[in-house]
Amino acid sequence: MTDSPKTFRVKSFGCQMNAYDGERMAELLGAQGLTPVADNEDADLVVLNTCHIREKAAEKAYSDIGRLKREDGSRPMIALAGCVAQAEGAEAKARSQMIDIVVGPQAYHRLPEMVADVSAGKRPVDTDMPALSKFGALPARRKVGASAFLTVQEGCDKFCTYCVVPYTRGAEISRPFADIETEARSLVEGGAREITLLGQNVNAWEGTCGGLDGLIRAIARIDGLERIRYTTSHPADMSDALIAAHGEVEKLMPYLHLPVQSGSDRILKAMNRSHSAESYLRTIEKVRAARPDIAISGDFIVGFPGESEEDFTQTLSIIDAVGYASAYSFKYSARPGTPAAVMGDQISREIMEERLAKLQERIIKHQLAFNRSKVGIDTQIMIDRKGRAAGQMVGKSPWLQSVHVETDAPIGAMLDVTLTSAGPNSLGGALRTAPALSSVEGVAA
Ligand code: SAH
Ligand code: SF4
Ligand code: F3S
């Protein structure tokens, strides 16, 4: 028998879908009367909401569990949640005796029951994937920050040969339109001014209002909501209707994260990506025709099995052809159970590191060029954190750039600024105010 926990901490790793799930778990535990705390040391229950995408991410979960042991030999109740929990199920309990609960991404609405089971001396595991039942069982959204996540689609049917997501998150499912609209309205009532629609393949969303474009148009009608974003998209699901929305819906921000992974058709085929370098470039061209100022972001994997110098050179070429505003890049990580893990010609760590460094250098060059192209522009930023210097705050531009400004405006404020300087990772801005009369007329004191 263990005492029922009174305090808890949820720690999320990995993608935004996990961050969203982490928030919902915290809301659920809060609704049960548990109090959130900021430190593991103060928590009676620690939920590790894990990521399985690369080897390092999964190993991190187990080393974090080890560190939860306290100096006096005690430890909190520990729930392993997220994609490592889904992938390893009951085996996780064998790997670490410290794990009390194993709960997958589709089962976490059952956390309170499972916590009660632990108090009764059990070590429960639930990695079932009932279609969407968790959403109906979660408490309504209440107080949220100015920028909120909203999961609208889950799972993936694409089966890229390197990726664990189709196994940890299951088949593609779209949440019903009415549920999403209700959640979006309660987020806006709770203080959100920006909503990011989330899904492993968010642009495959379908519902009674059509595709993702229809959903965006419907959400855009909510008063008080000012910015809409969505992520992550698959190039094969980038419909003409969604592209058109980028040119027509004012609240839809000019930013598109569209992972390409490689610029070589041979590698794309081995990855089972279902797009070619050329079809990807054609999509980008259409998006830019609809919204010329759009910021394009991407994901890259270097060192996929069989990747030659020539293949890698083609990846550098597609980076130049697109001119990315930002990008995430990774060394290929062989994941057990995926087809690529058993492919021949695995690439050495040294070559991967060399290619990653070259690729990142190329991306930073384009990032800097993109940021510089915005200097002199008047725009709006949404404050999302404090800056390093006193009196400085950092906000997001429509293109998702970080902009530093001198202001005491609070988090969530929308400010009119002129972008005044640019580095590779952020810009500087100055508040835009109406010119004072004296300076206009040049009146001397
Ligand atoms: N659904 C999204 C995101 C998937 S995970 C998509 O299709 O783009 C985010 C990124 O992690 C992927 O885009 C890919 O670049 C990277 N990734 C996935 N599996 C990986 C692996 N085994 N090794 C290295 N990077 C990987
Ligand atoms: Fe993974 Fe590919 Fe699905 Fe993205 S589209 S989640 S990379 S299988
Ligand atoms: Fe990681 Fe699972 Fe997201 S593996 S990237 S947390 S879907």
UniProtKB/TrEMBL annotation:
<keyword id="KW-0479">Metal-binding</keyword>
<dbReference type="Pfam" id="PF00919">
    <property type="entry name" value="UPF0004"/>
</dbReference>
<feature type="domain" description="MTTase N-terminal">
    <location>
        <begin position="6"/>
        <end position="120"/>
    </location>
</feature>
<feature type="domain" description="TRAM">
    <location>
        <begin position="372"/>
        <end position="433"/>
    </location>
</feature>
<keyword id="KW-0411">Iron-sulfur</keyword>
<protein>
    <recommendedName>
        <fullName>tRNA-2-methylthio-N(6)-dimethylallyladenosine synthase</fullName>
        <ecNumber>2.8.4.3</ecNumber>
    </recommendedName>
</protein>
<keyword id="KW-0004">4Fe-4S</keyword>
<dbReference type="InterPro" id="IPR007197">
    <property type="entry name" value="rSAM"/>
</dbReference>
<keyword id="KW-0819">tRNA processing</keyword>
<dbReference type="InterPro" id="IPR013848">
    <property type="entry name" value="Methylthiotransferase_N"/>
</dbReference>
<feature type="binding site">
    <location>
        <position position="83"/>
    </location>
    <ligand>
        <name>[4Fe-4S] cluster 1</name>
    </ligand>
</feature>
<dbReference type="InterPro" id="IPR005839">
    <property type="entry name" value="Methylthiotransferase"/>
</dbReference>
<feature type="binding site">
    <location>
        <position position="15"/>
    </location>
    <ligand>
        <name>[4Fe-4S] cluster 1</name>
    </ligand>
</feature>
<keyword id="KW-0408">Iron</keyword>
<dbReference type="InterPro" id="IPR006463">
    <property type="entry name" value="MiaB_methiolase"/>
</dbReference>
<comment type="similarity">
    <text>Belongs to the methylthiotransferase family. MiaB subfamily.</text>
</comment>
<comment type="function">
    <text>Catalyzes the methylthiolation of N6-(dimethylallyl)adenosine (i(6)A), leading to the formation of 2-methylthio-N6-(dimethylallyl)adenosine (ms(2)i(6)A) at position 37 in tRNAs that read codons beginning with uridine.</text>
</comment>
<dbReference type="InterPro" id="IPR058240">
    <property type="entry name" value="rSAM_sf"/>
</dbReference>
<dbReference type="InterPro" id="IPR038135">
    <property type="entry name" value="Methylthiotransferase_N_sf"/>
</dbReference>
<keyword id="KW-0949">S-adenosyl-L-methionine</keyword>
<dbReference type="InterPro" id="IPR006638">
    <property type="entry name" value="Elp3/MiaA/NifB-like_rSAM"/>
</dbReference>
<feature type="binding site">
    <location>
        <position position="156"/>
    </location>
    <ligand>
        <name>[4Fe-4S] cluster 2</name>
    </ligand>
</feature>
<keyword id="KW-0963">Cytoplasm</keyword>
<feature type="binding site">
    <location>
        <position position="160"/>
    </location>
    <ligand>
        <name>[4Fe-4S] cluster 2</name>
    </ligand>
</feature>
<feature type="domain" description="Radical SAM core">
    <location>
        <begin position="142"/>
        <end position="369"/>
    </location>
</feature>
<feature type="binding site">
    <location>
        <position position="51"/>
    </location>
    <ligand>
        <name>[4Fe-4S] cluster 1</name>
    </ligand>
</feature>
<dbReference type="Pfam" id="PF04055">
    <property type="entry name" value="Radical_SAM"/>
</dbReference>
<feature type="binding site">
    <location>
        <position position="163"/>
    </location>
    <ligand>
        <name>[4Fe-4S] cluster 2</name>
    </ligand>
</feature>
<keyword id="KW-0808">Transferase</keyword>
<dbReference type="InterPro" id="IPR002792">
    <property type="entry name" value="TRAM_dom"/>
</dbReference>
<comment type="subunit">
    <text>Monomer.</text>
</comment>
<dbReference type="GO" id="GO:0035597">
    <property type="term" value="F:tRNA-2-methylthio-N(6)-dimethylallyladenosine(37) synthase activity"/>
</dbReference>
<dbReference type="InterPro" id="IPR023404">
    <property type="entry name" value="rSAM_horseshoe"/>
</dbReference>
<dbReference type="InterPro" id="IPR020612">
    <property type="entry name" value="Methylthiotransferase_CS"/>
</dbReference>
